[in-house]
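Weekly modeling sync, notes
Attendees: S.R. (lead), two postdocs, one rotation student

Agenda item 3: backlog of single-chain predictions. S.R. asked that every request posted to the team notebook include the full sequence so nobody has to chase files. The rotation student volunteered to paste the first one in as an example of the format we agreed on. Action items at the bottom.

Example entry:
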Amino acid sequence: MASLSNSRALFAFTSPRTIEKIIPEIRLLVEKFSGQRWDTKLQARFFEALYESEFYEGASRPSDVTLAARDRITRAPKALGFVDLDPTIQLTDVGTRLLQEKRLDEIFTRQLLKFQLPSPYHTDAEGRFFVKPYLEFLRMVYELGSLSKSEVAIFFLQLIHLKDFERIKKKIRAFRNAAAINTKNRKAFVEDVFTHEVLKLYASDLKAGKTRIRESGETSAKNFVSTKKSNLRDYADAFIRYMRATQLITFNTRDYRIIISPSKQTDVEFILASIPREPVAFDNESQFKTYLFTSNTPVLLADNRAALIQRLSALMDTIPPNLDDLGLDELKDMVAITEEKQKTQSLEETSQALKSYREYDDIMQTFQQIRAREMPDPPLYLEWNVWRALTMLNYALAVNGNFSIDLDGIPLNTAIGNRPDIECEYDTFRLIVEVTMSSGNKQYEMEGEPVARHFGNIQKDSTKPLYCLFIAPKISEGALAHFFNLNRMQTKMYGGKTRIIPLSLDSFQKFVQTARDKNFSDSNKLESYLNQIVTSNQNAQDEELWMKQIQQSISNWC
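Predicted structure, as returned to the notebook:
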């Protein structure tokens, strides 16, 4: 049970980054520990099992594994009703549906809309919280037409009570009006507004000297404000990511603001009109669990047969004649399958449109926005934009991005599972691509082993030579040294020597620019270049000299 007594703003689930990644962790929990008590000893055992799993994406082993275990399970999985931890670990009704991995957007929609503050899981003795955060987030986007990530962090997260909705909405409009007439640097203007709002929001804490930061022990007011701003940004990011999983919201392609998905407009209108805004009062925790664990509430537009048939009519050229014989679940499955086909077709159309250099300027500008973190989800957009760039070169048999898109063709999720980010097939060789926004020691800790493992899994089963590009805004010293040495060693686990080539984002952009300037038209030249880099790896005195050779070769690679 968590207390909201010290909270001044809404919070979000920041671990894992995307809600879909709770699925394998919940599966691991219930398969190994179902029926057991969720105590500190079991928490340590669970984390050890999680840490050894192939899907664990954390950095180095945390010092407090029980805290890390609670962070993984007692937040999103428990709070959203997928597992029950008291008196023993049990998979709930909605958790069972989740692990079936069918129509995940519908499952996530129901559970996020049921999340409320306060609740028996999140108590508020002072009575300051009274809101269903994700429902009101949808309403705010709908009524304002769009929201930026900054507007979510600075203003929306202040919405801890329904009575504040109109006030927060007016503040966002006033912010937009002020921004429109602002004459100084836009970033500086936003930061000034953010600081002003944080100072007001935490005025009582600052006045009472309650400025100690738990993690660092710092007590300065300046550090306190900076930390609160950072936390609010993280919460805004997490809030948006989890809501994206419902596919009810998407991003405007012009300025990357959050909007209601055009394909889900009627679904959102149904939700806003039919689901009560007020949090539900519960007599006890058992009553709350019954409400939270049920898999078919609240009622959505997708539960309406007529709406489903209408949806199929919009998606299909010819409607099957036997729709009246299908059950509701069968109709939903048919809609889901048809929507997936639509997404595949959308990707194919995008791929065909990219096969020239007409999108070159947009791709390069997008890389600059990613580097400056002006995108709503930089890791996702880096993955997607590298896929666009490689597709644009147009001399692969196939360039497959393992990210997912929504019904509007907007990137939805990074590659999930034990797969590389991008897989390319050429006449005589294969290429996988791994991308990351991480840097420093974290880059090596998070990417070193998974990249090599992905390479090994594919190389051992490939009849063609395999290469890997590892792309990051900046290649860390640790990652560079790791790949430099792996490429020189026979490692059975990875199918022999690896061929992993690290490229900074600057180098990759120059690589693409060179392809355009030199009229690249022969995949054999690409294979020859990759072989050249691998050979230089074997002969270089150290990793720094090897990186210099890579950088010097980019301008004439083809």
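Discussion: group reviewed the output briefly. The chain has 23 helices and 13 strands.
Action items: rotation student to repeat for the remaining queue; S.R. to check formatting next week.
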